[in-house]
Write a structure and sequence with these properties.
Radius of gyration: 32 Å
Helix content: 40-55%
Structural class: alpha+beta
Strand content: 5-15%
Number of helices: 11
Strand order of the largest sheet: 3-2-1-4
Number of strands: 4
CATH topology of the largest domain: Arc Repressor Mutant, subunit A
CATH class of the largest domain: Mainly Alpha
CATH architecture of the largest domain: Orthogonal Bundle
Length: 244
């Protein structure tokens, strides 16, 4: 019996949880899982596909099986399963990076920028970059030396351009100086480029030639003062020779 006027208890089925109450439910935890099989991954040498007891799969480089002691029948607790999933994420980023590096050399920053959209977590991205660097596949100093040599082979004033490219690629000045311990003087390079691009008619029209050469030097990254000094010094010599 219930006292008169007192609310009667609900005896029907409980109402389903609201969206607010669902948000308060604990998030699902990783549960132990058993490795059902480890098989070679088709069309990707030295990679394996790991199938778990819940039928989910993870693709890994075969070296991870040794590092993480993975074998069919092993039960992975939550920590081990997290480690395997992290390794799979890192290996996927490394695989993508290797395709980039096969086409041409990249600095660490360039590789990072191209991998970042594909990284679920920052720590996976950093781990992939560190592993590539440790293996010598990313080497900013070698990248700098290669770019400097390539630009130098293309003619005067290219070292200045190469150093500007290296700065845009994320190399700090110390790394650039280590790769190029005896950089050419920008004014010397600018003068060399001006002499290379002079035309026979420039002797007759020095003002028009100067405007064209200023634009050329600016497009190559020389600052205004260096460009003016280089053009004026070379055109001054031409004017003197012409007056003779």
């Amino acid at each position: 019996m219930h006292p008169a006027g007192s609310p009667r208890p609900q005896t029907g089925p409980s109402s389903p949880p609201t969206s607010k109450s669902r948000n308060l439910l604990p998030s699902p935890m990783l549960v132990d899982s058993t490795i059902a099989s480890i098989k070679p991954l088709p069309r990707r040498p030295h990679w394996v596909r790991l199938t778990l007891s819940d039928r989910s799969t993870l693709n890994l480089h075969e070296s991870r099986c040794v590092d993480l002691i993975l074998r069919p029948g092993r039960t992975l607790d939550s920590a081990a399963l997290t480690a395997v999933r992290d390794a799979a994420a890192v290996d996927a980023l490394k695989h993508r990076a290797l395709r980039l590096l096969a086409r041409r050399a990249h600095s660490r920053l360039q590789v990072r920028d191209k991998l970042a959209p594909h990284a679920a977590e920052e720590r996976h991205l950093l781990a992939a970059l560190d592993e590539l660097e440790h293996a010598g596949l990313i080497d900013d100093r070698a990248f700098a030396s290669l770019l400097l040599a390539s630009e130098a082979s293309r003619g005067p004033a290219r070292a200045h351009i190469a150093r500007a490219k290296l700065q845009r690629a994320g190399l700090d000045p110390a790394a650039i100086d280590a790769a190029d311990p005896h950089p050419a003087d920008p004014l010397t390079e600018a003068r060399a480029l001006v002499r290379q691009r002079l035309r026979p008619a420039d002797r007759e029209r020095p003002l028009k030639a100067a405007a064209r050469l200023y634009r050329l030097l600016a497009s190559r990254g020389f600052d205004e003062d260096t460009a003016r000094s280089a053009v004026e010094s070379v055109l001054g010599t031409i004017e003197h020779d012409h007056s003779d």
